[in-house]
Amino acid sequence: MPTEEELFAAVDTLLAGEPRMPAPAERARLREAAGITQARLAQVLQTTTQTVKNWESGRAEPRPPRRQAYQRLLDGWSEQFPPAAAPDSAPADTSPPADTPPAATPPTATPPTTPPRAPESRKAPKRPTTTAAAKAATARRFENGPLAVIDVEDGETRAYCVGGLVLDVPAKSLPSLIDWTLTEAALGQPRLHRNGRDGDPLLVLTAAALERYGLPTALSDEERRAGRLPDGHKAVKQLARANWKLTRRGLGPWARIYRPAEGAKRNCVQLCIPAWNALDAREWDDRNDPRLPSMHPADLARYLGAYAQRVMTPRGTAAVTGLELMTALRPPTRAEKDPATGEFTRALNDDALTAVHDVVECEVPDEHPLLKGRFARHHLRTPAEMLMEEPYDWCRPLTDEECMRHYLVAVDINMSFAAAANGLTVGLGGPTHLTGNPPFDPSLPGSWLVDLSHVDLSRVEIDGRRVDGDRLPSPFTPKGDRPTGPAWYATPTVAYAVELGHEVAPVEAYVRTRNGRYLDAWYKRLRDAYVATMADLGVTTAMGGAEFLEAMARSRRTDPTMALLAGAIKATAKGGIGKLRQRNRGQVPYHEPWPALERETWRPDIRAAVLANQRIGLHRKLMKTAAAAGLYPVAIGTDAVVYPSPGPSPLDVLPHTSEGKPVPGGFRLGVSPGMVKHQGTRTVLWAEERFEEQGGVFNLANHIKM
Fold first, then answer.
1. Which of 13, 66, 230, 412 has its CA 20 to 30 A from that of 494?
2. How far apart are CA 150 and CA 297, in angstroms?
3. How many Å apart are CA 270 and CA 249, to the nearest integer?
């Protein structure tokens, strides 16, 4: 128990007040006056140069014990180098001294009477609007960026943020780290839509940080299969004792730690743990040359921070983030004032996915509960029983003439799934069943049972020319085979049959009468992110042809971190579309509901529409290219197209007009989504050797890489 003298001494200290630190600008002035560099000062105080920069810019304040040492140093410099005296700007005193007799006063003349002037009118300073004030407050709350990489070096815990900012972390335990993040770190991201919610701060824990906060640096086999630490782990118990909660996925590679919201204020922090495979190399890294395991925390903060600023703060895998981005840009609800009570209530947004609707048998995967008992155990559903809208996986043998061209050149469509989503009308509400041979309506998104086996590409005219249909894949099946009877198709596929000049006669359909261009904002966000990242790599939208190919070749060596970012953005677009029909990954038995089915965004019909539009858009370019130059592909893998070529470059094979411009409607070299880049080149001899090894023709598209 403290003595009376100790308590009095503590009170006296409190009355005296803590010594005040000089302003940030004064700290820098004193250091420069002393001739000391930031690096030298950091060495003396045993911290980083960036931390000293933060102290002098006002972005951070020193903490004990460095604060007392820094204060003592600044006090000493203040005595040695006082601020320069400011020039006296007060007017000189011209009144006579008190002992001087007053001078004789001449007779005063009566001044002419003038009307008093009205006081000058001054406009009141313009007050910031509520919206501007809210934005300013949000900027202050999140002034240190969306995320931080937590690392421990030489016993010091630091948070590496975007822009090179480094914060000292005083937290000694995992619960206190969460408290510090929400109260002092100023981390988070402003909402992407006015009706959305702000992004929770993200902490990326390095292996050293895991050890610091009592977490394992690697998961056991059992923990890896479960995707989380057991509930009995000491870290989980520690959080529970501090009244922190975990979501259903628990303390795993992507963990959410929260307390119930206080009004509009969220109390939630997300953890990303790369050592537990949070950043899968297939999405976030280079599988052939992984860089993330050895990346410095500052570089990792730059990488993930750039992703957060251009796309959004990661919420999990790139695929999960792609799906979350849809909701962030098209929130399902908004606050609406009730005119009767004056209180705000929750209202639904017309342009968003707002509810879980009934599903359609032809649109769901085989393991869906709706199909329980519907088919025999090992039955394979036919196109007349299942909507099979998938990307191309097609190839054919080379003709004798094509074998004489020496090379096979593969071109790849940039961000093909995102480009296919642009401008696409998709269903927002539940399905409406149309029966009795309904007429086809291209404005209604949905699924149509129709026979397209009569469509013959050889009878189609493109710009007055016909093509060789035998050397082109059918636009109606992923394998490129011609349909043999009625099958289920998404609206873009049936609309393309009409575009080719053929009659269609649907048998039945499931359509969505409430619909809209739900994915437009999502596409634009990802497009801008990708284009900006490629510009950082030296590839801009103004480039085309040889200049573009040269810039792409250089880009791989320009900035490896930004190259990883470009790949992550592409994985976000592709994975986000795939998540619209997330399948059962073994979480529950076959034909039992799995968690993804509870989401409003579990919409296999939207996924089917995007994939159909991607495949149809690709086929449209194939037709234009074949009609303009008699050029036919030999293989297509998703969004990669392989052409026989007399030379090794795409410039040797992609057709141009007489003015030297790309054929309208065909493939065009460029960085924008929907345009193509060079994927790789092989010789025809190489392909024939592969065919001989495999004993037949197989798809070469994904084997031709640069």
1. 412
2. 8
3. 12
